[in-house]
């Protein structure tokens, strides 16, 4: 499989299967056909939106549709690549909100497109819900600070390990692959009850496209995926930029010894026979997420300008990956568990802004660099896509 990086419009294409391409000409034909398919899908989506009275246009070189958010500035635009899914803007009413996950900005609108008013109401309701949740989270933080008698966030990192993600209310993301899992209402409700945020993909190609723009904590996939299968899918995930290992649990409708052995061979995080009991199954999934080493990402050495919000530090980002970054600094400062940072991505002409969770701190001993190891905690949809695009560029330049 290949991922198109340049020009910008084709970056939005899914991963393309070139196993049957005999030469460069065939690969080029595959890319052109994928672009034609995307263009036809966008045109159909655009016609449907216009028939509802929505003033829609194309952005990012014609690879994405956009329309303005009612009552907001022209910069606050809702994005759509297909009819059933809208991406809410990070500016406007959601500007500056620390949402638990980038998936919170993705709104499924299938079956809710009777008119432009219906869509506006759906979007408005979702925005109000996100604003309310962000306000409730801010209120909890203020109450926690008052309870500790300190004006700063509780739990500043001592010499030991930081609090676990589960203790701090982190909401892990899970990608559901295959129509059977997507339509399993009991499973999705149990995942939501336990704090998981679910994204969906109906097949391998769509799942790989999802993973080319996001990095979930866990993937659940049907073993049978049309012309592909779960074992092949797992191998394909490791060809994506920056991913060395991501936990994938495969679900099968009946026990097949050959499939179970294939799942074990490719390193699946589990091979499970359906039907499952949602409560017990999701409890097991939480243990998969919490197990160290189940996710491994390539760390790319770089020297990127960095800034830590609230601190006057002389620092650089010296490693970057899908999971986080390392901030190198010789300045001594008291380190909170959560900090907000920004790093420059000069090749893309962008600045990446995020909230990071401090996972470890190194002191100036031996040859280890002094600084902070940060795990990404809150990235906007746009920033996460830019990060992965940047990592793809770094991967392409490796010897």
Description:
- The two termini are 20 Å apart.
- Helix content is 33%, strand content 26%.
- It folds into three domains: 8-120, no CATH class; 171-296, Response regulator (Rossmann fold), CATH 3.40.50.2300; 298-397, predicted glycosyltransferase like domains (Thrombin, subunit H, Beta Barrel), CATH 2.40.10.
- The chain contains ten helices and 20 strands.
- The strands form five sheets. A six-stranded antiparallel β-barrel has the order 15-16-17-20-19-18. Strands 1-2-3-4-5 form a five-stranded antiparallel sheet.
- By secondary structure, the chain is an alpha+beta fold.
Task: Tell me the layout of helices and strands.
Elements: H1 8-11, H2 24-51, E1 57-59, E2 64-68, E3 77-82, E4 85-87, E5 106-108, H3 116-148, E6 173-177, H4 179-182, H5 185-193, E7 197-201, H6 204-211, E8 218-222, E9 224-225, E10 228-229, H7 230-237, E11 243-245, E12 248-252, H8 257-265, E13 270-273, H9 278-290, E14 296-297, E15 300-308, E16 315-320, E17 324-329, E18 338-345, E19 350-362, E20 371-379, H10 381-397
Parallel strand pairs: 6-7, 6-8, 8-12, 12-13
Antiparallel strand pairs: 1-2, 2-3, 3-4, 4-5, 9-10, 11-14, 15-16, 15-18, 16-17, 17-20, 18-19, 19-20
């Amino acid at each position: 499989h290949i991922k198109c990086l340049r020009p910008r419009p084709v970056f939005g294409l899914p991963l393309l299967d070139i196993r049957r391409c005999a030469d460069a000409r065939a690969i080029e034909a595959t890319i052109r056909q994928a672009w034609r398919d995307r263009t036809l899908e966008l045109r159909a989506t655009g016609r449907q939106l216009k028939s509802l009275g929505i003033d829609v246009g194309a952005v990012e070189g014609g690879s994405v549709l956009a329309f303005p958010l009612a009552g907001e500035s022209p910069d606050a635009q809702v994005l759509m690549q297909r009819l059933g899914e809208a991406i809410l803007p990070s500016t406007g009413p959601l500007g500056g909100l620390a949402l638990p996950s980038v998936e919170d900005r993705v709104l499924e609108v299938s079956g809710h497109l009777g008119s432009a008013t219906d869509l506006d109401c759906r979007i408005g309701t979702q925005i109000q819900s996100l604003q309310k949740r962000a306000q409730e989270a801010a209120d909890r933080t203020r109450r926690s600070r008052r309870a500790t008698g300190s004006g700063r966030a509780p739990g500043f990192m001592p010499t030991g390990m930081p609090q676990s993600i589960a203790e701090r209310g982190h909401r892990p993301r899970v990608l559901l692959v295959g129509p059977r899992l997507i339509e399993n209402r009991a499973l999705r409700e149990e995942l939501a009850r336990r704090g998981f945020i679910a994204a969906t993909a109906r097949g391998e190609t769509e799942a790989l496209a999802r993973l080319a723009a996001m990095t979930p904590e866990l993937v659940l996939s049907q073993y049978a995926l049309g012309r592909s299968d779960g074992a092949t899918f797992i191998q394909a995930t490791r060809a994506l930029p920056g991913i060395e290992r991501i936990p994938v649990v495969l679900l099968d409708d009946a026990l097949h010894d050959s499939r179970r052995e294939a799942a074990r061979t490719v390193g699946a995080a589990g091979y499970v026979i359906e039907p499952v009991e949602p409560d017990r199954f999701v409890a097991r999934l939480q243990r998969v997420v919490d197990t160290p080493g189940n996710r491994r990402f390539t760390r790319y050495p770089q020297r990127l300008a960095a800034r830590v919000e609230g601190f006057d530090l002389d620092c650089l980002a010296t490693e970057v990956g899908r999971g986080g970054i390392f901030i190198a600094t010789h300045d001594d400062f008291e380190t909170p568990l959560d900090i907000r940072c920004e790093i420059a991505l000069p090749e893309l002409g962008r600045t990446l802004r995020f909230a990071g969770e401090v996972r470890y701190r190194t002191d100036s001993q031996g040859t280890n660099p002094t600084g902070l190891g940060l795990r990404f905690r809150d990235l906007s949809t746009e920033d996460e896509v830019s990060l992965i695009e940047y990592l793809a560029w770094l991967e392409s330049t490796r010897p």
